[in-house]
Design goal:
With 338 residues, the protein is α/β, with parallel strands linked by helices. Helices cover 40% and strands 17% of the residues.
Length: 338
Amino acid sequence: MEMIDWQEGCPVFLDQTRLPLAVEYRRGETVEQMAQAIEKLQVRGAPLIGVSAAYALALAARLNQGAADFMAAMEKDEARLRRTRPTAVNLFWALDRAMGEIRAAWQAAGPQGAAKRALEVAQTMKAEDIAINRRLGAIGQQVIQDGDGVLTHCNAGALATAGYGTALGVIRAAVEAGKRVHVYADETRPLLQGARLTCWELMEDGIPVTLQADGMAAVLMAQGRVNKVVVGADRIARNGDTANKVGTYGVAVAAAYHGVPFYVAAPQSTIDRSLERGDQIPIEYRDGQEMRGFQGAASAPPAVETFNPAFDVTPARLIAGIITEEKIYRPKDGKFDL
């Protein structure tokens, strides 16, 4: 299944807000539509956000070819994309890389050459992401033993990437290696990415999965049913502090108490070496209405005050290893040197 592709001059993406009830694709015909798709979580997951931003710049380059000042128009569109989601560092990494290539192509071959190069870069980044995830999975599956119960939080699977997945890529690679794995998926409040997305894609692949509410993770650990925790990441500081979907920190605390190894799986591009510690990671806060109901159905008083950070930061001292496409980083004295 394609998460995003280029068809007839526009990005076409899987609308993840419609899953698991419907598989629907949408065309991004303007940069604003692509920006809103990222903001509304129609496309989501740090690696996929980065690839989608690159495709949005390819669209911008096509649309801006007739502009009086091509690069000024491109910079305006890039600025709009930068405002979509502040925590996922892959967004900014992808925009920086793509804009560098676009600028160089524009200087050499004008707007038409820049538009051609922009699409090439987006397609290259998509292919690279899939290859990176497969290498990451092959390296990471060594931490999974035959018969393990593996808990994950949110969705760090094929749906969060250009394909295959990070945390779920580790699980997929373990299954492909012949290991028996049972996944425990936190539902992931308030938008239920674990329930809607992780369970759906694991069931599509025939990988055994059990759904539980976020608050039930510690009970599973106490019962000895969870042998490992593997989660994704949206940004990792140089010392290993990791931002991931809110609720991850609580899972890590429970795992530490019960002696369950807690792993983070993410590509090298998710490591932000400009930040020394996790308290420097910008955290996105989302509309409180997400807390008051789901898909139009109210679940709380309409005027209740809400607290709705999209992410939390798990301290490095709670992380047993950070799995990347190059190696598994291990902590020393409770911190990493990334």
